[in-house]
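Session log. Operator J.P. requested a structure for one protein chain; no other inputs attached. Running the standard single-chain path with token output.
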Amino acid sequence: MPDPTDPILLLHGQPGNARDWAAVREAIGTRAVTIAFDRPGWDGRSAPTDLAGNAQAALAVLDAWGAARATVVGHSLGGAIAAWMAAEHPDRVRSLVLAAPSANAASLNRVDRLLARPVVGPALGATVLAGLGVALTAPVLRERIGAGLGLGGPYLKVSGHALIDPRAWHAFAVEQRALIDELPSLEQRVQQISAPTTIVVGTADRIVPPVSALLLAARITGAEVVEIEGASHLLPQQHADRLAAIVVEAARTLD
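Structure written below.
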């Protein structure tokens, strides 16, 4: 039986929530205990926070499970949080999987920087998220988007309702600013990571450039890069089986 005190902790990106990991958790099945939670700002209760605050929230979840350590998996901005945890709390991270991680300056682009600007950034982010949310709540548009992305209607419908919530707009703005402000510091901290690390990247990712994964891996001793040919940024949703296999293998690294 899987050991609940040595679980796999899954950290979603932005915008996002624990449901983003549903397909990965299903693919992992009974091979391991998996934990996914809505991070601060995305749970409808707590305020959004920076990388350190998110790391503390993740540690609190592990504490609630009675888990001294975990295999920590982060997608996109969740990858930055996972890397922060591994650098600052090495005793709590058994192994590390970073999926399409926004964890270094090379992962950012001009749009990221625009979205982080005062006033215009939050306004633009809210407009984009609200527009996407409205589209996903409209059955015809949701069906077309789902067909193009290969994602199910129920998942997209729930995601759409989440995106039209002003709290999501605020969380996105706070985290976007955190990325710009804190990634230079994180980029230096990742050199402290001692946990076995796997970085997974889609070769067709237009959100986080694949080259940024190579640059990140070069700063982490022994880090392995796994490329998924033709994959976009949505690795947990679109390549759940492959990502699950990588995560389970990482969790077994030290068995």
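Operator note: The CA atoms of residues 1 and 90 lie 26 Å apart.
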